[in-house]
Amino acid sequence: SAELEGSKVADRIDSVLTHKVWGSLVLAVVMLLMFSAVFSWAEIPMGWIDAGIGALAGAIESAVPEGPLQSLLADGIVGGVGAVVIFLPQILILFIILTALEECGYLARAAYLMDKLMVHVGLSGKSFIPLLSSFACAIPGIMATRVIENKRDRLTTILIAPLMSCSARLPVYTLMIAAFIPARSYMGGLLQLQGLTMFAMYSVGVLVAAAVALLLKRTLLQSETPVFVMEMPAYQWPSPKTVVVRAVDRGLDFLKNAGTIIFAASIVMWAALYYPRMSSD
Questions:
Q1: Cα first-last separation, the chain
Q2: Model pTM score
Q3: Which among 90, 142, 144, 221 could disulfide-bond with 130, CB atoms 3.0 to 4.6 Å apart, if both were Cys?
Q4: Predicted local confidence at residue 23, as pLDDT
Q5: Quick one: which H or E segment has residue 44?
Q6: From CA 116, how far away is CA 80, in angstroms rounded?
Q7: Are 56 and 75 in contact (CB under 8 A)?
């Protein structure tokens, strides 16, 4: 029957996607393409947002007389809003891809595959998705730890999530690499020294996170590594409506939960930088 034939096809696909070698290679390619998409596709909308924030700040500076109010509006409020909204395209793109991978059934296979690696540091495959989300922003990654039932595993994942190199660090990495790493190429231009350096900087975060997780699970948060049990969903085409709705929901969660904190911190930082001021007299 068609159902039996579909089951056989799914089993053949699973034999590749969950294979120790081939599955790891497929996962590496998927992750590489996803991160490339997050950074490259978001570049244009982030530029629009940055230009819009700059134009709004300039309009405020032109309309409001120079002084504390102008600085508060332009640098504190608009700058605080910009610090939050600027990363929204990356977060939306990341969650669109993650939701699509989850809907089509691949993300469960990736979590199963990663469980074999994460068990060595005392975690299970359920920590894989939150840590993956932390590459865009640690706050959505921390919020995604709600799916981890074990309290100690959840706390460990929360503590190591900020060690993942989020998108906010990318401009710093880019500036440092451009300043200190020469533009050299290898293998006929296939590999770039600056690109390899960027990959190494991201890898350092992963290795440090693994070391910290291992230390925590053997000391303060010691517990038995949970058995990872997950029902493999059937392969299917992701629903565009579901993908968009869930990604927008995650984006709104980011703006609501993380945005308010970042905005408040921006106002506090503005006040600390603006005051005290020397009198012009």
A1: 90
A2: 0.68
A3: 144
A4: 85
A5: helix 43-63
A6: 42
A7: no
